[in-house]
Each structure stands twice: as structure tokens, then as C-alpha cells.
Amino acid sequence: MKVTVDFEECLKDSPRFRATIEDVEEDFGELESKLDKLVKLCIGMIDAGRVYNQANKQFVNGIRDLALQSTRDEVIGSSLAAFSETLQEMNNYHTILFDQAQRSIRSQLQTFVKEDLRKFKDAKKQFDKVSEEKEVALVKNAQVPRNKLHEVEEATNILTTTQKFFRNIALDYVLQINVLQSKRRLEILKSMLAYMNANLTFFNQGHDLFSQLQPLMKQLSGQLDQLVVDSAKEKRDMEQKHSSIQQKAALQDFSTEDSKLEYNIDTDNGIAMEGYLFKRASNAFKTWNRRWFSIQNSQLVYQKRFRDNPTVVVEDLRLCTVKHCEDVERRFCFEVLSPSKSCMMQADSEKLRQAWIKAVQSSIASAYRENEDEIISLDRQSSASLGSLDSGCESVKLVKGESALQRVLAIPGNEFCCDCGQSDPRWASINLCITLCIECSGIHRSLGVHNSKVRSLTLDTWEPELLKLMCELGNDVINQIYEAHREENGGKKPQPGDPRREIEAFIRAKYVDKRFVLKPTEQEQMEKIMTLRKHDKRMQGNMEFLPPRPPPPTPKLRTASNASVASLSGQEVRRDSLFCPDELDSLFSYFDTSSKLQNLKRADSGIQNSADGSREMLASTPSSSSLSETDLPESEAAANQAERSPVFSKLTNFSADSLLYWASCACSLKDMAQALAHGADINWVNLEDSSRTPLIQAVQGGSLISCEFLLQNAACVDQQDIRGRGPLHHATILGHTGQVCLFLKRGAKQNTVDTDSRSPLSIAVEAANADIVTLLRLAKMNEEMRGSEGAFGQAGQYSLSQSHTEQQYKKCIQEFISLHLQES
């Protein structure tokens, strides 16, 4: 170690020593100011760097958004995605560089200034103080008279002590100066070297990153030259086309009648003719509106905007006639007449009117010629399709004690991940009914629950209805739908171990963008819907408006007697209840937790006397199995007839919504999944069928699993039809106990009344359905128990009993569902 200040000079306290000390002190003062300035500059650089990183991050996000918007152009989309990834990595490297500067420059040098230089300042103050005391002692010793021995001795002792103390302090001060001088080099070089190494790492990482991107950049550079040529060629072609169209338009000005004819005969799409017409509204003002009309598939339809669903004017042209209209004020009018309504339209010219009339007449004749062959073809296809539907609705029998993992993986195709093919998956998407590996499950979670609901096959608990739903579809069925068009669209299925971003891009394209779903033709979709409607008609005739079918026999899980409750008149009740009398008393006793609750229940006329009241109500009802239409008032019977008639009306909507609607009633889970893949609205309302929804249709079909599938895909459990009846109403009318349990479990509002002011409970009481009455009354009293805390204003009085009661209620509901699934 090089000695800056000599220790020997320190003992002498010579002028050379004092000069050296002054130089060192001045040097350390300048060092402190320079280091302070450097630290402040470093802080400013770091703050500016973080601002730059934030702005750069936003810029990269803008590039990524542009890449997502340009997915249709593969070159731009993939290139911008690669650029955004590279720039994001560089932004991360910048962050690491600034963090290193924070540690090496700011923290390390700031510590050196605040700790080491501060100690040096403290030592300097002590040294200056001792030096001053030494000078005072020397002066005092020199001034003592010779004859005053006592003062001479005292001054000598003080001087000796002061010189000794000064010597120790001076030596320590010199030692600290020499050590600090050495540490100064160490700290400065160490911090700067760490910062320079961080810069070296930053630029090396950037070089490696752009080296990987360099082949793509070279490829794009080569493509840019060709793009310049192609762009110039396209511009020249567009200018030529613009010129020719302009010349054609100039020539057509001399023949305006012919220029307005807009034929578009397209046999592939079934469009015979299309163009703009004025349509007279059916309101009192008889206003005229310009709409885009087309004749397609033996129907006359129109739409206001391109993206609007076409409005059907005439459902079947075979039942229509067309004629000129000369008795109106406007010119060029013609009218299409059907048995139920007429439509007045106006063309722009006489030739266009004649063309439309001829097109309508030709479509009528063509529809008659094709009618016979169409019926034969649809009958053959419907018989084949119905066979597959019946087999698809078969239930897998539950095996007691079998785990969810074993049950689900036993389905063909489920032993591998649905998206990447990883073996032995441990996760599932419950609304898509597929199995997933842990990596794909994480990507599915990022899609949002509106696209995929992820659950563990080993860690989570599985309800019987959800487990059975998982076993109805599976990976093979879903991949047939969501990957039907994958190879044609150039979609590469990822493999286990592929980069996460590739797997995520594939999953988003598959389930969010639905890029690989094969959209059927209108003819195929029409045939499928008509097949499902035929299946529905057979069911409608058997069960929709007949008395509620009795529930399955009581399972052999009860030890109490299963005898039915005798009526007051001595006649037997229509069937045995799933509840024996002792169990019914026990269940209702769960709600009798306080006198206040009992008084609250007595105030409700529908639930008097707890379980005894339930049995008395059922006993006092007619012994017939249900309310038939002959027992209803004439007005209600007429309403039922009106509600029933649209079910057999002509099919006018071939969209994915209608496919989901009729597949739900036919219990065809595969067709329901296919309709959702095609973008069907889960809560679509069929205005031609009493405003019913797919969930109400699933209730009509009698399948609990179909209802569960719709509910898992966000179907509204309380959406009502035109008569104010929701799914719970319909399940109660049909006597579907399992579906009633499912809807109550999903939070259906059981107090809602229909247009006839009848709630599900009143309907069940009239039908003498003991099980559904019991369930609805338990649900009603469970709600009262929940509201009792707020009603009585006592926070903790009923918390324990309420928790116990709600658990018993949920247990009861789940047991009903399990029994229904076993019996089905």
C-alpha cells in the first residue's frame, strides 16, 4: 500500500506534515463534491431511463396491437409480431442495465460518500481540536515564570498529556487517510467496472437478439423490392379499371333504364335476384323505405345494412302470387301476396319491375319442381341423423367410487391434451368438455371464463351432472368441430414442448377466433335444422302438452317406508315421493330454528304448518296425475293452443342460433357444441316460437345434461318466454324433478309468476307433484332463512343455524340431481 502521509512526519508535526494534511483534506473535499455530482447524474439517468422504458413499452404495445389487427395479412402480422417480441426483449435488457447502474454507481458510491468520507470528516474535526489544545498547552507552558515551581510542574504535566493525546489522534488520523486513499481507488474502479460490464452484457444480448432476427429482416428486405414492383402494378391496374368503369358509366348515362337492372344469378348461394326496392310499411302512415331485397331459397328477404340478419318477407314463394299495382300513387309498383299478408314494393323503372315480377314467378315455378325431390332427400337424411342423435343421448352410467380423473380419461381421445397432445392431462375445460395439460390450462385461463372455464381433475370436486357432461363429449368430438378446417387454413397443431407463444396463438385461433371451424352451407344447415325439428315434433306430440310424466321410482337408498301419502278422501296419491314422511318432517325441521322464524312462516299462506301443511296441500289436490288441458279454463286452453301452434310453423331462420335452439330440444350435445362454435347466441330468443330460448327447449327435451351444458356456457337461468315462464316454470309443468333441482341450484328465482300469475310452486301444487312442491318450499324457506338476519337485526343469533340449514338444503338438492342421473 502506498503511504500518502508519512507516520514519522506525523510524530514530528513538521510544516511538511501540516502541508500534506491540507493537500489531502482539499483533495478529499473535491472528491466528495465530484462523487456527489456523479451520483446525482446517475439518479437522473436512471429516472430518464425508466421514463424511456415506459414509453418504449407503450410503443411496443402499439406494434403488437397493429400485428393483431393485421392477422389477415400473414406477412405483416408475423413480421410485426417478431419485431414486437424483439423490441420487448431489448426493453427488458434496458431495464436490467438501469438496475445495474442503480446498484453499482448510485448505491455503492453513495455508500462510500456517506459512510467513509463522513468518518474522515469526523476524524478531521477531532484532529483539529486536539491540535488547537496542543498549541494552547505549549503557549501556557512557555509563559510560566521560573520561580513558580508549582505552576511550572502543572504546565509541564498538561503539556505532556496533551502531546501524548495529540500523538495518538494524529497517528489514527494519518492511518484513516491512508486507508481511505486506498479504498477510494477500490470503490470507484469497482463500481465503474460493474457498470461497464453491464453495458457489455446489454450490447452482447442485443447483438445476439438481432442476429436471430437478421434472417427475417433480410427476407423482408428482399420481399420489399418485389412489393414495390407489385404495388406499382396494382396501382396501374386499378387506374385502368377506374378508367374503364368511368367510360362504362358515361355510356350508361344514355340508357338509364338498362343501367339500373341488377341481376346476380348465383346458383351456389341460391340467390335468383337481388337489388334495391322501396317497401311500403304496414303501419298507419304507410311510409316507404329503401331496402336491399333478394330472392333466395324460395324466400323473399330484405335487409337494411349488410351485417343485419335478413328479414323474411315471404317464407315460401310456393304459396304466393305477384301482380302489378296501378291503383297506387307511385309508379312501378308491384305486390307479392301470401295467404297471411301482402307486401307492396316499388322498383326504380318499368324494366326493373318486370324483371322482379319475372324473377318471383320463376322462383315459384322452380320451388314447385324441386319440392318433391327435396322432401325425399330430407326424409332420408333425417332418418339417418336421428339415429345418431338417439345414440348420442345415451347416458354413461355412474360408477360409485370412481374418481373424476378415471371417468373423464376413459372417454376416447381424452387421454391426451386436446390442444397440444400431451399425455396424461390433469385439467379440464368444463364448458368446452375437453381435457388439458397444465400449460394449455394456463393459456385457457387467460382467455377468460366467457371462453373457457378451467378446473382440475384431481384437486377440485366434481358434481355428478358436470362429470356426466364431461363424459358426453370429449376431445375427439370437440376437435372434429373446432379443427375441422385446420389443415385447409394452414393451422399447425402444436406439440408438447413447443414455445408457449406458438401454443397460445393456436389456442386463440382455435377457440377465440374460431379460425378452423368449418361453416356449413345453408343447404346443410337447413337440412340439419329440419331433421332436428322432426325429432322435436315427435317429442312435442308425446310430452310437451301432456300431463307431467312421473319421476323415476324411488331408489333403494331409504330405510324408511316409501308408501305414498294418503289423501283426505281416502284415494291414493298419484305416485310415491322421493321423500318418505319421516324425511320430509326432518327436512322441514331444519328451518324451525326459532319462534320468530316459525311466525314468519305462518304468515305465508302457502307454507303453513311446515311439513304437515305440505302433505295436506298435496292430499287436498285432485288425484289426477296433472292438470290436463280439459281442466284448464277456456282462455288458458286457448293460450296453450296459441303457444303450441308456432312450433310447427315453417322454418325461416337457418342461422347458428336456430341450430342451437332445435338441437337443445333434441338433446344433441354435439350439434349444440357445433352451433356455439359457429357463434350462436346462448340466450337467443325465437320470436316465432313464443319467445323461447335454447334452455327452455332443453327443458322440453327432458335432458338434464343439455341444460347443464347450456348453463356452463352462460345461459340465463331466468329468461322468460312470451307467457312469462322461465326454465323453472317449464320444468315444473313437465314434472322434470332433476331439472328443477338443477335450476334451483343455479339460483333460479322460484317466486317469479307468469302472465297467469302462477308461480312454479302453485303449478306444482295444482299438479300434485309432491317432490317438486317439497323442493320449491324448501327453496322458499331457505331464502327466508337468509333474510331473517336482516329482518330481526341480530347479527350473530342465527349464523350457525343458517349455515347448517343451507348446507342441508344444498345437500338435498344435490342428492336429487344424483338420483335423477342414476335413474336416467
TrEMBL record:
Pfam families: Ank_2, ArfGap, BAR_3, PH
ANK repeats: 723-755
UniProt keyword annotation of Zinc-finger present: yes
GO cellular component: endosome membrane; plasma membrane
Domain spans labelled PH: 270-365
Stretches assigned to the Arf-GAP domain: 402-524
Top-rank lineage group of the source organism: Eukaryota
InterPro entries linked: ACAP1/2/3-like, AH/BAR_dom_sf, Ankyrin_rpt, Ankyrin_rpt-contain_sf, ARFGAP/RecO, ArfGAP_dom, ArfGAP_dom_sf, BAR_dom
SUPFAM superfamilies: Ankyrin repeat (SSF48403), ArfGap/RecO-like zinc finger (SSF57863), BAR/IMD domain-like (SSF103657), PH domain-like (SSF50729)
Activity regulation (record text): GAP activity stimulated by phosphatidylinositol 4,5-bisphosphate (PIP2) and phosphatidic acid.
Keywords of the record: ANK repeat, Cell membrane, Coiled coil, Endosome, GTPase activation, Membrane, Metal-binding, Repeat, Zinc, Zinc-finger
UniProt membrane topology term: Peripheral membrane protein
Compartmental location: Cell membrane; Endosome membrane
Region feature Disordered, mapped onto this chain: 544-567, 604-642
Biological role stated in the UniProt entry: GTPase-activating protein for the ADP ribosylation factor family.
Domain notes: The BAR domain mediates homodimerization, it can neither bind membrane nor impart curvature, but instead requires the neighboring PH domain to achieve these functions.
PANTHER family per UniProt: ARF-GAP WITH COILED-COIL, ANK REPEAT AND PH DOMAIN-CONTAINING PROTEIN 2, CENTAURIN/ARF
Annotated protein name in UniProt: Arf-GAP with coiled-coil, ANK repeat and PH domain-containing protein
